[in-house]
Amino acid sequence: MPKKIENVGCPYCGVCCDDLVVTVSDDGKQILEVENACAIGNQIFHHATGSERVKLPRLRQPDGTYKDISYDEAVDYAAKVLYNAKKPLIYGFGSTNCEGMAAAAKVAEKAGAVLDNCASICHGSSFLAIFDNGYPSCTLGETKNRADVIVYWGANPAHAHPRHMSRYSIFPRGFFTGKGHKSRKIIVIDPRHTDTAQVADIYLQVKQGHDYELFDAFRAVVRGHEIPDEVAGIKREKILEVADILKKARFGTIFYGMGLCHSDGRNHNVDIAISLTRDLNDFTKWTIMAMRGHYNITGPGAVWSWQYGFPYCLDLTKKDIAHMNPGETSSVDLAMRDEVDAFFNVGTDAGAHFPIEAVKHLRKHPWITVDPNICMASEISDLHIPVGIVGVEVPGIVYRMDNVPIQYRKVIDPPEGVISDEELFERIHKRLCEIEAEEAAKTEIKAAPEGVRAEE
Amino acid sequence: MKTVTLTLTNPPRLMLEGQNITPDNFAGKKAAEIAALDVWEGKQKSPLGKYFTVAGDGGATAEETKIVLRGDCTRVKRIGQQMTAGEIVIEGNADMYIGGWMKGGKIHVKGNVDSFCGIGMEGGELIVDGNAGHHLGASPRGEWRGMQGGVIRVAGSVGNDTATFINGGTIVIGGDADIHISTHGEGGTVIVKGNAKGRVGGQMVKGDIYVYGTIENPLPGFQRVGEVEQEVDGETATFTHYIGDLGERHPVSKGKTVYANLYTRI
User: Fold this and answer.
1) Max CA-CA distance within chain A?
2) CA dist., res. B226 & res. B131, Å (int)
3) Which of A84, A225, A333, B132 is deepest in the core (most CB within 10 A)?
4) Average pLDDT of the residues in A194-202
5) Has residue B136 been placed in a domain?
6) Distance from CA of A339 to the nearest CA of B (A)
């Protein structure tokens, strides 16, 4: 009798849908059906048992092929790479649980590495804006229950967060929003007429890269000042009309995405969006939220901020001082400037996401990929270590895009012998400690490797 | 004044962090002691002498110490960081954070510098003969009190985010500036003698910006109020005067609202 598991969390996007129903075969080895998930979430579950999985770590051989090795050998290799590098970079964590992130941070601290997550090439600029200007945000539940005006700025949830609009923003009927879609005004601001723009009441086609000017115009209008006839390709009348809607809302939320974080100015676009949100709170209640990408990319920000005080781009090379300055300690900048000499790609695909020049620089040095699946990074690595899929085979804490932690669970067991990210990093940490002790024991005078304090 | 000459003879493979290369740290030390100061290459701590040959002793105090850097320092960061007095001359290029958090003294770079130079500066003088990267004279991340004082002069062009959160001091740019000048500024003066690309004075509360050339994308939050004749950096010229950023909060002083000023040369 197949077993139905209810209220399962989805390991795909930052919306973290937790209403999935997964049907598992009698023997608990096959996923038969996934209900309520979007097409992409569905695929993640089916991929776990419906495809050929890598079950052992694979080490690159001199002839260029991969050879299966044991987890012990892989852990030893990884620990030695980290120990010998002057400045290793550990990057990724888009798709793993907080337990794995905490264990990886332990390894990074021990190895004197730079620790970075996918926010570095995604919502990292939001962090910088939040540092500078605060974050008047709310939870998705508040938006669902209260919001009557929704702004999507530079975001396309119809494709990137398929159930965001139906679960939280546009369509659901909440406590004070009983009429659902009918009582809500939807404003979409994007240079492209996206599928999200098609459900909008008002669509503003901002000139690409000129969001900052449009925000400035909105702010000037909200404060009662004159603006030019046209700003960023939008007519003054239209700006006045939208500004009026924003001011008259009962509760509004601005959801913004890569359109702000990855066009010219980056953090400043988010920064001025936060300023506009603050201004609007002189009239009514407005909130702002980053459309975080992966289901647990908010996690490393929460976990590492708690551990080190910074959410990403952590330079831990000085061990007892955490330093953060994106532009210097961010992964792509480190790679482009040839500033790191070993690379750990964890639960993401730097091979596909990084600029090719950055990949070329990183590839000059040892490259280790930790990922359940075969991806571009795993195919160019020196070592590929497979792990269980979080949310499908491994349980754990994840943070939704509104910083709400959710306990994910597993629906099936991982393939035999495959371990979790957390266990892998704990084992690498243990091996690093052993290597350090072995090296320290070699000479009596030098109690610890150069540049490393003895007690660490 | 005594001169210490550092020549980079053994360049680092990664980047070198030379926060100890300041007159303050060199003062009162013999050449051999200077060569024993720490520098970092990633997690590896080494003596300065591993990378540089050191000639000459430091003066008795920072004021009496001059440091000359020879060789290609393109991969050396943090020279002159937090210095309070004395002089540094870098004969070629240098990397990031040159003159970061500096409080006094003078740094003269004869080549180009990378990003974050003069960030959080409180006093002194930073002169760059070539170009500078991004975040020149800006505030460190998350710090709302940016540059407090001192002078930065760049003969060439600069990248983006110049003078973010500037509070005081002067930045003079001989060439062009990329986007974002004096964003969130609350004081100080930035003079761009070339062209500015855009977002000049965004979210600015107080302070002055002069642009001699054109602004490709002016902000809607700045409003023209008239023309003025002013002396700027030793020469008098006529400027169009704008006030802004009208979208930002502005303090009221003696019954008058204080705005940031943007002047473009006519």
Assistant:
1) 78
2) 33
3) B132
4) 96
5) yes
6) 5
